[in-house]
Model the fold of this input.
Amino acid sequence: MNGYLVLFRAIAAKSVALSRRYLVNTVMGFVTLYAFFALLFFGGRFVAADLISRSVGPLVVGYFLFTMAVSAYADLTHDLTDEAQWGTLEQLSMSPFGFTTVVTAKTAVNLLGTFATGFVLLLSMMLTTGTWLSVAPLSLAVLGLLTLLPVVGLGFAFGGAALVYKQIEKVFPLVQLSFAGLIALPVREHAVLKLLPMSLGSHAVQRVLTDGLRVWELPLVDLAALVGQSVVYLAFGLLVFRAGTAKAREQGVLGHY
Done:
């Protein structure tokens, strides 16, 4: 266990060092996310003030989930591509912890960064709109994690594909646009939609933030379905990632860019 803690601390320290070293890029990434929301909000008020005033809460929650999902999905593939460019990917694959364990630790660190950025962005959006949602940190953290784990599973699957096919970034915009549709799906009217990633989790987060509920006040069936969905998608992503890693090693292209 101490070894795994050392691994996690080392990866976290590297992530922080890179963020500080390229501080302008880090800050501008957050500013871009906030500026795009500001354009949506103020532009929407100019075009359809009544509509925006009635849907500020869902807009804030939806954008919050969308930005976190995009980050959770794409971070792993970007990390693997960067490591291949730097020539360090093969070194990571030779770690005594195992390549999958190292990548999982990197994903956990990325998720912590995603939650930190998302929370600051959420506060900034509430301050901008003047709409203060009911933020229960524990409930938001639990439901946010369960909502993002299926997306992380997709990230693992695309990460495995990136190890074999290298340049797959052209697929990202299409997948990222689909997140917006998944977040807005009417799961109350059509229960079968709850099987899709993010749809049920988005509904649960909306209820927690806009209706003031806590995670233990949500229907037990929905919570069980959300946990099962997270496990299934994450397991699928890990299987695809391991298959991609094995194929890249077999072809001798693991560290190629």
Remarks:
- Residues 220-251 form the longest helix (32 residues).
- The mean pLDDT is 87.
